[in-house]
Amino acid sequence: MACMNEEGQWIVLMGLLVAVALFFLALIINQSALVGQTTAEGVLEFPKNDIRDLREAVFDYVKEFGDADNAVREDIIAISLERKNAVVSFTVNQKMDVSGHWLHPVEIHYNNGVTVYNETVYY
Amino acid sequence: MLSLDFLAGFTIFMLALIMVVSMVPGLLAGLESSGIDYDAVAYRTGVILVEDPGWPAYPPWELYGEAQKDEIQRMGLAVSKETPNILLSTKVERFFEKSPSGEPFFTPDDYRKRVIFGDIPYSYNFSLNISNPDGSYEPKQAGDPLPPGYGYIRRVVKIKEPGVAEIGSNVAYQTETPQNPQNFTVRLNFSDLLGPERGPAYRIDPRTEPVNVTITNFDAYLNKTEPAAESATLKDVTFWKMDPTRPNPRFTRIPFSYDTVNSNLYTLYVNGTSDLHSLQPDVPVKSSISLVLKPAATSLFTLDQNSILDIRFNFENDPPQTNITGTHLYDYVNVTHPPLKTAVLEVAIW
Amino acid sequence: MVNDAGQLYTMEGVAAGIIMLLTAYIVVSTTSVYTTGDTHIPDMQLEQLGSDVLAMMDTPDAEDTESDLKRYINADNAAGGSDQFRDTFLNYCNRTTSGAIDNLYMSANVTYREGDLIKERLFVEPPDDGSWTGRESAVRVTRWVQLPTGNPYGSRPQAVLVEVLLWRA
User: Fold this and answer.
1) Same domain membership, residue B133 and residue B67
2) Do strands B182-189 and B283-285 pair parallel, antiparallel, or not at all (unpaired)?
3) CB-based contact (8 Å) between B197 and chain C?
4) Based on the domain organization, do A32 and A67 belong to the same domain?
5) B4-52: pLDDT as tens digits
6) Which segments in chain B show pLDDT lower than 50?
7) C-contacting residues of B 72-101, CB under 8 Å?
8) What pLDDT shows up at residue A31?
9) Mean pLDDT rounded to a whole number for chain B
10) Which chains reach chain C with 3 or more Cβ–Cβ distances below 8 angstroms?
11) CB within 8 A of B160, min separation 6: which ones?
12) What is the ipTM of this complex?
């Protein structure tokens, strides 16, 4: 610096250290804040309840109609696309012997653009 | 003598400093806020409690006593993985269990290691409020009083409670030619009880829930031929099992400490009094018998999903004083299952 | 009187000011991420609670009986189904373990299919006590209900989607 003596440099150095320390503290706060944000967002984004609900709706369908075709299937597919923005399909096959019990193999597919879920279940 | 330049520079410096200082309180407000991850931990804890049956599954963790408590990996309250939000009453009772002196069965360390998880020793408060059909409430609570600024989640759940086989007077269980000894059997066919036709929320599972057999109106089974009997002597209650998948299946008597009273394994009440009896009571029965076989006992019997378990009530009198006989099936027809109860579960973490 | 001897001081002051402003900006902007996260947490709690309530209303208390939810939807407004639905729903989601009552509000509609058209019908109106502004930060929770022949939404067996808007006053 012009016209200055250089005896106070340690003050400048300390100032710099404090500034760097502050910056790192800010970074740490930033990270911990992100934990809360991403958990809540992750929970909101993952359609856990929607998929569970769809499974139960499909099981209700199988209980009611078995492997027969019914307009209720179209209801579920069309309303899912319109109101839930999810592409849904499911197929119910004829009963088969699963370790002593006669059950329908059911295939469930779900895709809302972010989460894809596929399942084959015997009901 | 201050120069004008210095004044200008210093003014700018002071302005900037004031702005920074005025921003600092806002910065600290973010630091003090509780919501950083307590809410996430509370959510996770709520999910474990409400949607998970816990681990180990068989025998279920709620049967573990003080000695094997360390073997519990995870305490979940759900009936099964397939039935989120439906909690099993035996798990709930164990989770909130307190000794008569008010000492909780699980220590804060147990709760932290087996439900909350995480490296930080979080403080917690779990509370559950069950609403009974008669309009009364049954609150349960574990943990410390709530401070301001805690993470929180509330879940609405249903509680599944065990059924009761109540046997009233029934001519089908009366013989005209009573013998000495006279036997009455209650039969549990596990392959019928645990079949997949029934959802886990409505299943009778003697491996996780107590089996309750109550004979009311026992006086209807007393020998009416002259001289009319006043009472009949219940000599003993024994357990028999059969595995139909084995070649030549037959009933074998299950070795069990029949002569010791242990209310952790079973309770036997006779005539409606509150005296605990062993399974070899040798007492006169006038009005009723009530036997509750706890899952802790059933787990000792090494039963699987095909076994048949018989509970045999043996009456000995000479001349015979009771005409009770036959086999009562402990199944979905004979067992009255109480309806699911609604409840609210709150988890607070800080 | 005015000369240029102090120009460096001035520049130094300006530089220091800019650096401090920059630091303050970085610090504040990094921490302010938190506020956006904060808005998601109550949403997440509300959504979970609403889904729980609908799922529990759809769980019959005894095997092989009709669930409350299905009964209310099938009864429709005529038989008081929507009032019962609203009362049960609010009773479930406003209850706390301490006995205090939370203040959540709801409205509901039912989406159904008629031919190629997806139609919507208001099932429970928002409260008419003047508290409804349309600007609430509400969450939407849904549940499938399957109705038998001869239901309020058509003559054939149908699957309808019950949508509930839930918000905190």
Assistant:
1) yes
2) unpaired
3) no
4) no
5) 788 888 888 888 888 887 776 656 554 444 445 788 889 999 999 999 9
6) 30-35
7) 84-86
8) 58
9) 86
10) A, B
11) B79, B86, B87, B88, B89, B201, B202, B340
12) 0.80
Query: How crowded is residue A43: how many other Cβ atoms within 10 Å of its Cβ?
Result: 20
The runs of H, that is alpha helices, within chain B are 4-32, 38-51, 89-95, 108-111, 190-193, 295-298
Q: Is residue B130 part of a domain?
A: yes
Local structure of residue B135 (DSSP, 8 states): S
Amino acid at B109: D
Determine whether the interchain pair A36/C34 forms a contact, defined as Cβ–Cβ distance below 8 Å.
yes
Asked if residue A20 and residue A80 are part of one domain, the reply reads no
Hey, are the CB atoms on B39 and A39 less than 8 Å from each other? Answer: yes
A-chain residues near B84 (CB < 8 A): 52
Report the residue of B3, B5, B36 to disrupt the A interface, i.e. the one with the largest count of A CBs within 10 Å. Answer: B36
* Predicted confidence (pLDDT) at residue C135 exceeds the cutoff of 60: yes
Q: At CB < 8 Å, which residues of chain C contact B?
A: 2, 5-7, 9-10, 12-14, 16-17, 20-21, 23-24, 27-28, 31-32, 34-35, 38, 41, 44-45, 48-49, 52-53, 55-56, 59, 61-63, 92-93, 95-99
Residue A8 lies in a domain: no
Shared domain check, A64 and A27: no
Q: Is residue A74 part of a domain?
A: yes
Of A19, A29, A60, Cβ closest to residue C30? A29
Which amino acid belongs to residue A77?
Answer: I
Q: What percentage of residues in chain B have a pLDDT greater than 90? A: 28
Distance CA B305, CA B302 (A): 10
Cβ contacts of C159 on chain A, cutoff 8 Å: 57, 61, 72, 75-76, 79
Write down the pLDDT at residue B33: 45
Q: What count of other Cβ atoms lies within 10 Å of the Cβ of residue C82? A: 20
Question: Are B158 and C56 inside 8 Å of each other by CB?
Answer: yes
Rounded CA gap, C142 and C40, in Å? 19
The DSSP bridge pattern shows strands C104-114 and C117-124 to be antiparallel
Q: Contact, C43 vs B148, CB < 8 A?
A: no
